[in-house]
Amino acid sequence: MKTDRPDWLMIVGPVLIVAILYGAGSALPSLQGSGNSLREQPALPQTIEGARRNEEAESNAMAAELIAVTDTDSARIRALPPLSRNPVLRVSQKARRGDFGKLTPWQQTGYTLAIERGATVTGIAKVTSFYPAEGYDEGEATAYGYGCSDSTVAANALPAHSFVLIELPTGWELRRVEDTGASWNDPVARRQGTDLWLDRWVRKPVGTMHCRYAVIGGQ
């Protein structure tokens, strides 16, 4: 039975159907690909979550270590005796607890005696120096049997082998009386308004100074 359908529809219709089916078929791989991508995406949040947990664990470990170190330091600081306001005792306490590095045996003895005896500033001394260029080489014999060294100070008014702390411009310095000097040194020092004369052995010349000093005494 003949219908009124145009001839062009008989030709175009099948072409359109084929085109639609072809387009649908070509879209399937893309959809499948999108589906694969969507199925892989949940792994990304898992990776981020794992990294976050690792960061938290590392942060907690660092915090615990910091707390442990802080607690240790605090305990050590609390265990130290409070520093004295007395400048002589203060520097002696610092020396004995290691603030100035390792001490020699004679330094340990001198600073310990200063603490035990509660040494204080005695007065003002005229402080001079003697050195190798004057003929006093390191190791040169002294009046009390020691050789010239960084521990040596000469004094007429202090007992042999006694310890004395001298406040130099660079800070307090511990010395031990190991030598004597000319008899007129102390009268000259007193005329200049100081208590006594102290003569430090040094490696290079140092000018005359008026310095506070503290007599600690001997053993």
Which overall shape is indicated by the principal axes computed on the Cα atoms?
globular
Overall pLDDT? 78
Question: What class do helices, strands and sheet pairing give?
Answer: alpha/beta
As a percent range, the share of helical residues equals 40-55%
Whole-number count of domains: 2
Q: What pattern of helices and strands is seen along the backbone?
A: HHHHEEEEHEE
Strand content: 15-25%
Q: Please, could you describe this protein's structure?
A:
By secondary structure, the chain is α/β, with parallel strands linked by helices. It has 2 domains: 7-78; 87-217, RlpA-like domain (Barwin-like endoglucanases), CATH 2.40.40.10. The protein has helices at residues 7-40, 43-79, 87-96, 105-117, 185-191, and strands spanning 123-130, 152-154, 163-168, 171-179, 196-201, 209-217. The protein has a 6-stranded mixed beta barrel. Strand 3 (163-168) and strand 4 form a beta hairpin. It starts with 6 loop residues before the first helix and ends with a strand. 21% of the residues are buried. Mean pLDDT is 78; it is low at 24-46 and 65-74.
Give a quick summary of the entry.
This protein has 219 residues and is an alpha/beta fold. 46% of the residues lie in helices and 19% in strands. The chain folds into two domains: 7-78; 87-217, Barwin-like endoglucanases (Beta Barrel).
